[in-house]
Amino acid sequence: MDVRCRRREYTVELVVLYFAGKSRIAKVNVTEKRIDLLNLDTHELTGLIASWNEPVYRVRQLQRWLYRELADDFDAMSNLPTTLRTRLKEETTLGSLRLVAAQNSADGLTRKALFQMADGQTVETVLMRYLDAPGSPEDSSDPPNVARRTVCLSTQVGCPVGCPFCETGQAGYIRNLTLGEIVAQVLYFARVEKRAGYEMPLTNIVIMGMGEPFMKFNVTWRAIEAFTDPARLGMGARRITVSTSGYVDGIYQLIQKHSQVNLAVSLHAPDDKLRDVLVPVNRKYPLRELMNACHAYVQATHRRLTFEYALMDGINDSPQQARGVAELLAGLLCHVNLIPLNPTSESPYQRTPYARVQEFQRILNNAKIPTTLRVEKGIEIAAGCGQLRQKITQHNSQMAALPLATSVGQ
User: Fold this and answer.
1) Quick one: 98-396 is in which CATH superfamily?
2) CATH topology for the 15-95 domain
3) Phi-psi region for residue 268, left (φ > 0), alpha (ψ -120 to 50) or beta?
4) What is the mean pLDDT of residues 240-250?
5) Mean pLDDT of 58-85
6) Is the pLDDT of residue 158 over 70?
7) Average pLDDT of the segment spanning 121-140
8) Please, what is the end-to-end C-alpha distance for the chain in angstroms?
9) Residues labelled as active-site residues
10) Among 27, 28, 35, 96, which one is least packed by beta carbons within 10 Å?
11) CA of 347: how far to CAs of 32, 43, 350, in Å?
12) Are 129 and 146 in contact (CB under 8 A)?
């Protein structure tokens, strides 16, 4: 039986946690030999349950507890027999992520979480709430009038692309996430919103966090299947967006899936010379190949494509470059999402002044390229990709260098 549940052992000797301005030294010895249920699709879970001589309807019951009831405790699964719950507790887990830090924006609409995995690596996820009416969550004791609740999830620890303006890209690449580690990010925030009183905890998923989703297309696609499978999360494909730095092979693989999932492409430059610097994957997949793939995607799916463009002061924000973007995208069913750069600690790149942002947008709109300006969320909590992780990593390094007695917070 192949249920993709290879058992692995990890030992994490020392973890320094930083949360709410306080630090802790925590010695953690983790040995993980159990099956992560979130790593299993319906076929694989059926195989596992069958190998335990349980009836097949237990699969449906278990999936409902995992993805609809959002249970985080086997004891809550009241319609499962005690013997099965005991075996599940002994041989499986409900995900392998552990929350080590969380921050909320001042308006309460953005929440960022830093998770630690069984091998000690950390990954970020962000929940973004968008109001459907003026006001803020503090205006009422009832759940706020939130029109959308979007989770931005990660697919890798670090990123291999190495964009110089991105905190994650500058931190380097460590490994891909497993299916279970990706799905667990979404379920965590679904629980958060369910406890806040929302009948539909999440409305959208964007795969735009740490990592390049198409570098390991199969795992990303299995995660999308988990999100859209009616037996699991059951979200509509059009509510999911996957963003790529320009992995052309992944775009063609997505085309072959005949899916209604939305595609976003990180553009950031209108020419190869600059894009080679800002998005180094361009050296493998230059703009001509990328644009051919984008046209093929639109032709095959009839779906509008999104191009993301982070504006950097004096780098890619001139009127001439705006006209270059308009020329590059002419005739393509698309829109451009202009992004004021989230400044990072190590990068020399700075955000474009607002007046120049408006001028860039005006040029694109005049060229009949639909353009929006991304609403900034969570700057004060380091909500840009990789920023909270890097902040805490730096703090941990500083604390680990101190004598132990000095390092331990109150």
Assistant:
1) Aldolase class I (3.20.20.70)
2) DNA polymerase; domain 1 (1.10.150)
3) left
4) 98
5) 97
6) yes
7) 72
8) 50
9) 124, 385
10) 27
11) 37, 46, 8
12) yes
